Amino acid sequence: MIRTYKFRLRPTVRQEQALREMLRDHCRMYNAALQERRDAYRHSSKTSITYGQQSAQLKEIRAVDPDQARWSFSSQQATLRRLNKAFAAFFRRVKAGDKPGYPRFKGVGHFDTVEFPRDGDGCRWDSSPHDRQTRVRLQGVGHVRVHQHRPVRGRVKTISVGREGVHWYVILACDEVPAEPLPATGAIVGIDMGTVHFFTDSNGAHKENPRFLNKSAEALAEAQRCLSTFPERTQHRTKKHCAAARKAAKLHAKIRRQRLDHHHKTANELVRDHDLIAHEKLNTAGMTKTPAPKPDPDNVGAFLRNGAAAKSGLNRSILDAGWGTFLRILTDKAESAGRRVIVVDARNASRTCPECGHAAKENRITQAKFECVSCGFLANADHVGARNVLNRAGPALRNAA
Asked: What is the pTM of this model?
């Protein structure tokens, strides 16, 4: 299995300065490579520059620029590959007819990660079971102390160094990670994700939705108001502007950590107590899409109501719950524990009667109430959805057997 480990770095003052310079120089390289591609396409008969061509220039760049020569050659290649992936995704969206989203230049404050493609090439992970002082060696920075709060299993393949606010982290991508199967429980469950409740299982139990964004909404709004008093684009940011930006970023980081902590703990409970977990296949990107505008045929330039205001509240609740991240964490933990996760079709899951199988829009009276118009079965709508999710996982179980 492939797993990632994230640890906090404890750099010295000089090491932290070197880390900031490393991000700055890699950001410069990313933007220069993007500018080169733009200029070549505009002025050379729409000629495209490839990653191979830009990578071949690195040797000359490092020879004339001592700032770039300080850093790992492989990490600079990884930065150029990052830009190449952005262009590949751009062309893929163009061919698919989606919104293109042309690659943009990165500001120093928005370029927060440098990747080292291989352990031992510009970086080295120094971890010994007999030495509690774990360190990671980075070319141009030195041996940086790591707060390793859990053991690393498997073989370290790639190492990334990232900045989140004022903190620094190292992310290890490891393969050949051994599984740690849990003893069988004989229990199976289906879950129906929601916004009123985080999820409802097929036994009728509700998991509370913590709503971390709503709880911090007032403080976050105050921080955003303070930040909005400064001009968006200024040549030199003042100390007050930087302090306001740090305050808003700190609140966002806190909400993100709270949400991830809740996801991990909830997924651990499900995996520990059940051998099989079934859930719906959810397209959260489509569910949170802004409604298309409706032009008014009688008034040129005017638009009709499209429910965007009401939809924005639902979108915010879905994104605050973080369904996609939770289901990914659940799948990873289940794989490590030897459990099984089955994904089923989500259509009409909460409109189908689990007793007689009748599916109709009229069965769902309200958000919480379900009453079958055919047999009169009455239950909580989320509980009905969870039961149908578990029932739809039955064919997959029979095929596996």
From this structure: 0.86
